[in-house]
């Protein structure tokens, strides 16, 4: 019997752990939202957690399997596309619960529209330079600063602190991803800059989960 060899062990394992943790954390968050918010709040946190599980699941699959160039490219497109989905998914409870009213729904529609463009972009040009992807994700993520005063007024400064911390961690990870530290990666073949990027993403997801759990749900 042919044994399966994981393509990128460090990347696959880190995001498999993140996927399992996200799946385990979903029910408590939905339960909490159900006790303190209406149906729209439950729907918002469900979208948030679904996007997180999809992102880490897609990443795990892409970094685990080396089937054929064609299949690998499809998995890569799905993996990269899910980043835009996670960003929009994170905005969903922020907009619906943290902002609410007309402003929240306008921002939500705008972010999901941009996410759709991001997915389309990655499907058409998944091999684009890393800095292009990083800039796209960072700009999309930091759009929330335009509504920061309204979010702080509705959700509180502590919630904004978790939001800001997550954004900084995601941005730091994007910088690592864009720099392509060849010398560092040569010295750390099993756990290089891409794996560090994964850890930053996991830390960012944790911060945003805590924001939603403690202050929005």
Keywords:
217 residues, mainly alpha, Rhopdopsin 7-helix transmembrane proteins, 84% helix
Can you describe what's shown?
- The chain is mainly alpha-helical and 217 residues long.
- It has one domain: Rhopdopsin 7-helix transmembrane proteins, CATH 1.20.1070.
- It has 9 helices and no strands.
- The protein has helices spanning 9-36, 39-64, 69-99, 101-124, 130-141, 148-155, 157-179, 182-187, 193-216.
- Helix 1 (9-36) packs parallel to helix 9, helix 2 (39-64) runs antiparallel to helix 3 (69-99) and helix 6 crosses helix 7 (157-179).
- The mean pLDDT is 93.
Secondary-structure map:
Layout (H helix, E strand, L loop, with lengths): L8 H28 L2 H26 L4 H31 L1 H24 L5 H12 L6 H8 L1 H23 L2 H6 L5 H24 L1
Helix pairs in contact: 1-2, 1-9, 2-3, 3-4, 3-6, 5-7, 6-7, 7-9
> Tell me about the biggest sheet?
none
| SS element count, helices | 9
User: Cα distance, first to last residue?
Assistant: 49 Å
User: Helix/strand/pairing class, anyone?
Assistant: mainly alpha
The average pLDDT is 93
């Amino acid at each position: 019997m042919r044994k399966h060899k994981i393509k990128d062990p460090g990347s696959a394992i880190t995001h498999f752990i993140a996927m399992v943790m996200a799946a385990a954390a979903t029910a408590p968050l939905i339960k909490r939202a159900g006790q303190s918010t209406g149906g729209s709040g439950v729907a918002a946190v469900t979208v948030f957690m679904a996007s997180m599980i999809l992102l880490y699941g897609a990443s795990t699959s892409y970094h685990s399997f080396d089937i054929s160039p064609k299949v690998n490219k499809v998995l890569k497109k799905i993996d990269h596309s899910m980043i835009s989905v996670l960003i929009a998914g994170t905005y969903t409870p922020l907009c619906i619960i943290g902002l609410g009213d007309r402003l929240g729904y306008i921002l939500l529609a705008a972010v999901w529209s941009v996410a759709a463009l991001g997915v389309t972009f990655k499907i058409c040009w998944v091999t684009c330079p890393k800095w292009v992807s990083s800039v796209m994700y960072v700009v999309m993520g930091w759009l929330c600063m335009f509504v920061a005063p309204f979010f702080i007024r509705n959700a509180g400064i502590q919630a904004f602190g978790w939001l800001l911390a997550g954004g900084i961690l995601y941005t730091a990870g994007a910088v690592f991803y864009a720099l392509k530290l060849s010398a560092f990666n040569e010295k750390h073949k099993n756990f290089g800059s891409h794996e560090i990027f994964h850890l930053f993403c996991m830390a960012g997801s944790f911060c945003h989960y805590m924001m939603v759990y403690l202050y929005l749900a």
